[in-house]
Amino acid sequence: MAYSDYVPVTGTITSISAGNNCCSQMITLFTENGIVNFTVSPESIIIENRQLRQGMRVTAFYDSSLPVPLIYPPLYLAQIVIVMDRNDQVMLNYFDRNLLAADRSLQLNISRSTDISTVNGQRFTCSLGDRVLLVTYTVTTRSIPPQTTPDSIIVFC
Description:
This protein is mainly β. It is built from no helices and twelve strands. A five-stranded mixed β-barrel has the order 1-2-3-6-5. The chain has a four-stranded mixed β-sheet with strand order 7-10-12-9, with no helix packed on it.
């Protein structure tokens, strides 16, 4: 997985419609930068297999290395979609053995309350270091790098 090409877009779902075939959907997100459309295909990963509904706040990741039509509003193929709570933030990054993000933008401090699982929802009990992680959190310190105790971590094995 070339996670470094994945770009997050966070917004509220304003509409859901049928896609080009019976197995895909088109979702429209209202973001702080305007409207963005996503195709959710059978290959898209929906974290926790949540059913997407109008009014949900989500972050959808698209692969910036894939071609996209030059239209407005933009239309991307969703690779990963995660439903977000009101104050949640999300990061998809490679974390080293010290749980520092590859771009040095976030340091993780794991607690007993951190929910850790694999993409398919199974409990993950191995070391989190040297892996690609999808991290949800609410607050960070003002240190450099910022530190957080994540609410949840999804491990991409």
